[in-house]
Amino acid sequence: MCLIKPGQSGECRVRINLDGVLRTVVYGYPCSINIDPIEKKPLFHFLPGTGILSIATVGCNLHCLNCQNWEISQANPEESQAVLCPPQKLVDLARQNRCPSIAYTYTDPIVYYEYTYDSSKLARDNGIRNVLVTAGYINAVPWKKLLAYIDAANIDLKFISDDLYRRICSGTLKPVQNALVLAKASGVLVEVTNLVIPTLNDRPEQIRELARWIKAELGQETPLHFSGFYPQYRLLHLPPTSLQILEQAREIAISEGLDYVYIGNVHSKEGENTYCPGCKGLLIERKGYTILQNRLKNGCCPDCGKEIYGVWK
Amino acid sequence: MTRRKFIKKIIKAGSVIIAGSLPLVRKASPRKFVRAFKAKGTPFCKRKAKWDATPFCKRKAKWEPNKYPGSIVPIGDISKQGKWSG
Question: I want to staple A274 with a disulfide (CB 3.0 to 4.6 A). Which of A97, A186, A248, A283 is the partner?
Answer without folding.
Answer: A283
